[in-house]
Amino acid sequence: MARAIASESEIFVTRDTKLLELESILYDKFSIQILCPTDLIIKLDNLLRTSEYQPVRLAGTTIEKRLIKEGEQKQLLEQFLMSGQREKKNEFKNYLQGFLASPNEFNCFVVLDHANNKQLSSNYNYIALFVYDWSEKNQLTIPLLRVNNNIGKMRKAIILHLLSIFILEASNKERLSTRITDQYLDKDIIQSIQDTLFVQDGEEWIKHHLVFSGTTLQLTKKLNGLNSESIFNTNILSKPIEILQDSSINDRNTATYIERLFHPCKIVDAEIPSFIIPIQAKWAVDLFDSELANQTIFGARKDLAFNCEAVYYRSVRNSGGLSAPSRVLWYISDDPKYIGTQSLRACSKIDEIIIGTPKELYRQFRRLGVYDFEQILKIAKNNTDNTIMAIRFSYTELLKSPIPLQSIQQILNNKVTFPSPYKISRSEFETLYNKGMQILN
User: Fold this and answer.
1) Cβ distance 140 to 177 under 8 Å?
2) How much is the pLDDT for 72?
3) How many Å apart are CA 43 and CA 69, to the nearest integer?
């Protein structure tokens, strides 16, 4: 240490815990950083990949995701050790250090919120910790997935949102599966994994997903090919292939299930109705559109943005024959406060259409809807006895390339401006979805 100070070295690397604890004192006095070997690797990787260490908003909220930085290990070990499941501290420490020591193989992320928000408890620092392993050609592996137990009622929503991020990022990198291998998952995470249609494979969980838009026959051929190449789990594929080869695929509930099983897969010749639904930008910000939310200072509401399902209210009149299950392409109405309105920006699955009075629907869906009761009552013409419509939807994907109104009108061969829901044909949905997701057939 004396030699390092005398030679005016900027960094001293050691595993000596006593020296590491004196780091701030020594830095103030001698301008030398005391780092453990893992923190040195993180620091060097930070210099090489500066942009990846910058925080990124999650779901357009003030909650951020970024790579772990040097000096954070101790707090992460204390906060995410699964002592209730008899995980040993040294085991967890070695496990985490192994990931951090190989930044070319593993991406180690934390999720945190710098803003003071009543929805999150005050006794937390980090919301979540997870690791990406991209070493398998066709698969994203998650060897570590921990979520803070002290973030209150939002915990389940955040877990589900993280799972949807894993699937989305794996799909964007053309990976066909996401596998979770953490052996210390708590029961909330396991329940969320099951809700997202992951399938247990020994002591691990796997979810197959396909960036696919095609016919039933094309999907069957693709799955059979993946099955024969042993890329997909044979036990998982056998039942879906059997369903696809059976006439039951003409049942829209069955077709919707297959699409969810391999989400974001789309079966374009299935009997699933499709609609374009207009929505104001200010509601889309909180319900699903993180890109619009990122244009605002405060971002989206955390209690809504992390929900993987949501509810949108509208009048029963001029509903365009809305039914469920079905698909929806969201058209964001003109709003000069936002860039990118007057365009299709997202695609969702409609799970349920419910007709009821304002009080009934607000009571049933207040945790999922963006409107307060007064706004819902306004839809009912301020009459508590009038009925309105609630649209419950999930599996939302932001289009990679939003489609402006003029292009939509050209594809539909119709000058419609979407004042209300508009039913489209299967071929029109296929064309619009493929264009928005940049899928080339």
Assistant:
1) yes
2) 85
3) 7
In a shared domain, residues 332 and 364: yes
Q: Do 9 and 84 fall into the same domain?
A: no
Please give the C-alpha separations between residue 85 and each of 82, 88, 257, in angstroms, as whole numbers. 5, 9, 34
Q: Is the pLDDT confidence value at 21 over 60?
A: yes
What pLDDT sits at residue 44? 63
The tokens of 342 are what? 């007057």
Q: Do 286 and 388 share a domain, yes or no?
A: yes
Coil, helix or strand for 434? Answer: helix
pLDDT of residue 43: 61
Question: 12 is in which domain, residue-wise?
Answer: 1-35
Alpha carbon distance 163, 377 (integer Å):
35
Q: Is the pLDDT of residue 281 over 90?
A: no
Can you tell me the mean pLDDT for 265-276? 95
Strands 266-267 and 213-214: parallel
Q: 382-412 in b/e burial notation, b at 16+ Cβ within 10 A?
A: eeeeeebbbbbbbbbbbbeebbebebbeebb
**pLDDT confidence of residue 119:** 46
Q: Which residues of 86-98 are buried (b: 16+ CB within 10 A; e: fewer)?
A: eeeeeebbebbbe
* More confident site: 189 or 370: 189
Q: Are residues 232 and 118 in the same domain?
A: no
Tokens of 283: 């509601």
Residues 62 and 204 grouped into a single domain: yes
Q: Residue 61: pLDDT band by 50, 70, 90 thresholds?
A: low
Residues 390/331, Cβ–Cβ less than 8 Å: no
Specify the number of domains making up the chain: 4
Identify whether residues 251 and 386 lie together within a single domain: no
Instruction: Kindly tell me if the per-residue pLDDT of 291 is higher than 80.
Output: no
